[in-house]
Backbone:
């Protein structure tokens, strides 16, 4: 599958304190730029084994460019049909702008939907506020019936994304329980790596993570329910199977397109620009990035987890924070060690071997 992330708008109706975009450009992607990017992606999708193109709409808040989203969807269907390609659509939204009409559109075109929700109102509204400094939770709560109808009509579950940062990590456990109690079965936790974490707070964060980790395992055993938690899934997989440097190989089968048509591996960082919608892909640049030499940072050399560490190979995050693709982001390194320690303390070798066998079977 080839994944095309389209930043159809660099503008948002919210002013979240931790937003990775920083100061918004208030720019929109025009339809010709979008078509150029799609044409490139279709060319790449034809090379994939499953002949599938996934178009992921992002922002800003993508629903502020709903009309553009619709045009793109229609164009993707038209062009993929011409080449016998399968297509999929997904988006991440803040939930405040959802209407009956938009929900019906997302349903009709079988979108995968991810909702940004940081927890109960008193947690969510700490960081996810509008430009008048008003919390956004109540606006999302008003749309609950639309989310439920989408899930019933599509048979899909909305996934939820929440951010843990310095002013809300003490609510991690409350947030996690709230999301499960709210019926979410796909939970994506992001630990904010754009800020500096003092040692005292890192220690407190590790205690919070341990509490959630143990609760999660106990919940799965006690209820036999299927709850996906990205951090657990990602760390457990990396722990039981070796991880190569630059493991995601972004740029080879994925691309991120900014509103102006610039194409990047995964984020709008000039060092990782690999083409443009009106010119095409810079293949030598893609190869240079995707097959970057593995130069292990000195402090990583003697780490017992070095062969199973994704942090050191996330070169975009490393460069964004440290301006060095080989220097790991400190909080990400810390979290890797925390999770691996928890895995070792809470899972038996037999359980780990069963997980390892399952991944090996899945790769055959």
Residues:
């Amino acid at each position: 599958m080839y994944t095309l992330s389209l930043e159809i708008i660099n503008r948002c109706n919210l002013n979240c304190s931790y937003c990775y975009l920083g100061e918004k450009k208030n720019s929109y992607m025009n339809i010709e730029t979008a078509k150029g990017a799609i044409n490139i992606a279709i060319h790449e999708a034809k090379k994939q084994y499953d002949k599938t193109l996934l178009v992921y709409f992002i922002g800003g808040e993508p629903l502020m460019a709903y009309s553009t989203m619709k045009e793109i969807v229609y164009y993707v269907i038209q062009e993929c049909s011409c080449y016998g390609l399968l297509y999929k659509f997904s988006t991440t939204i803040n939930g405040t702008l959802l209407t009956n009409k938009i929900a019906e559109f997302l349903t009709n075109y079988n979108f995968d939907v991810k909702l940004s929700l940081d927890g109960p109102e008193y947690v969510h509204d700490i960081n996810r506020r509008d430009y008048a400094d008003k919390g956004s939770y109540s606006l999302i709560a008003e749309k609950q019936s639309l989310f439920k109808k989408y899930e019933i009509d599509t048979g899909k579950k909305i996934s939820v994304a929440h951010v843990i940062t310095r002013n809300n990590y003490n609510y991690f456990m409350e947030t996690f329980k709230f999301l499960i109690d709210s019926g979410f079965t796909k939970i994506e936790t992001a630990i904010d790596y754009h800020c500096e974490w003092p040692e005292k707070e890192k220690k407190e964060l590790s205690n919070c993570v341990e509490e959630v980790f143990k609760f999660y395992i106990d919940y799965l055993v006690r209820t036999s329910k299927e709850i996906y938690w990205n951090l657990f899934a990602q760390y457990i997989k990396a722990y039981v199977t070796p991880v190569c440097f630059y493991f995601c190989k972004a740029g080879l089968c994925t691309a991120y397109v900014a509103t102006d048509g610039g194409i990047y591996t995964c984020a709008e960082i000039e060092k990782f620009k690999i083409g443009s919608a009106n010119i095409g892909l810079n293949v030598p640049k893609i190869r240079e990035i995707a097959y970057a030499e593995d130069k292990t940072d000195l402090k990583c050399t003697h780490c017992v987890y070095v062969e199973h560490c994704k942090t050191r190979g996330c070169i975009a995050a490393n460069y964004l924070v440290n301006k060095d693709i080989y220097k790991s982001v400190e909080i990400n390194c810390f979290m890797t060690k925390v999770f691996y320690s928890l895995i070792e303390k809470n899972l038996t070798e037999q359980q780990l071997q069963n997980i390892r066998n399952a991944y090996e079977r899945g790769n055959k």
The chain has a mean pLDDT of 95. Residues 199-223 form the longest helix (25 residues). Residues 2-240 form a domain with the TIM Barrel fold (CATH 3.20.20.70).
